[in-house]
Amino acid sequence: MTRTFTHHQTTGRALLTALCLLLAPVTTSAQSDTAPASPVDTVTQILTPQLGTNGQTNYTPVQTVQHGQTVIVQTTLQTNQGSLRNISIDVPVLPQSGFLGIESVTPGVTLTYSLDGVNYETVPFVTTSRGRLPARPREYRAIRMNIPELLPGQGVILRMIVNIN
């Protein structure tokens, strides 16, 4: 995993500088049509959405984000050799950020969420003095993409919305 952030103070406001593209860790429990297992390329980018003149949303990769800024974290997965079935890809929520929701995901991909990066559920729960309640999305630490089949040259994209703390 390559993830490099530096934390700077600029006139009292925190500034995170992404020095490289993020690479999400890949946990594969995949079955392959070929041996050995086909490689999976996963790339994660930080994007800012901008409304284009045609009314469609355009996404621009960014290297620097500021405290309080809301950004899109896009994870792209692709295999170029062989078919993969039953793939699980764990995508961590960026450090120093809060998960707000999913902007989009490739059709057919199901998502589960984790509060600790280990245990995944469709709806994670926390135990409070009021009993067992659904966790707030800001408490999510990772998202698992469950992909039934990935064909050669086919890509899968997850776009999550996060707010930089």
Distance, first to last CA = 22 Å
Largest sheet composition? 5 strands, antiparallel
Q: Spans of 5+ residues with little confidence (pLDDT < 50)?
A: 1-38
- Label the structural class: mainly beta
Number of domains as seen in the coordinates: 1
Q: Given the C-alpha coordinates, what overall shape results?
A: globular
Arithmetic mean of pLDDT: 79
Order of helices and strands: EEEEEEEEEEEEEEE
Q: Report the strand count.
A: 15
**Which oligomeric form is depicted?**
single chain
Task: Assess the beta-strand content as a share of residues.
Answer: over 45%
Q: What is the CA-based Rg, rounded?
A: 17 Å
Helix content: under 10%
SSE layout and pairings?
Elements: E1 5-10, E2 13-18, E3 31-32, E4 41-51, E5 57-61, E6 64-66, E7 70-78, E8 84-92, E9 97-105, E10 110-114, E11 120-121, E12 125-128, E13 131-134, E14 142-150, E15 155-164
Antiparallel strand pairs: 1-2, 2-6, 3-8, 4-5, 4-7, 7-15, 8-14, 9-15, 10-11, 10-14, 12-13
Structure description:
With 165 residues, this protein is mainly β. It has one domain (5-164). The protein is built from no helices and 15 strands. The protein has strands at residues 5-10, 13-18, 31-32, 41-51, 57-61, 64-66, 70-78, 84-92, 97-105, 110-114, 120-121, 125-128, 131-134, 142-150, 155-164. The strands form 4 sheets. The protein has a 5-stranded antiparallel sheet with strand order 3-8-14-10-11, with no helix packed on it. A 5-stranded antiparallel sheet has the order 5-4-7-15-9, with no helix packed on it. Strands 1-2-6 form a 3-stranded antiparallel sheet, with no helix packed on it. A hairpin with a 2-residue loop joins strand 1 and strand 2. The protein is globular, with a radius of gyration of 17 Å. The two termini are 22 Å apart.
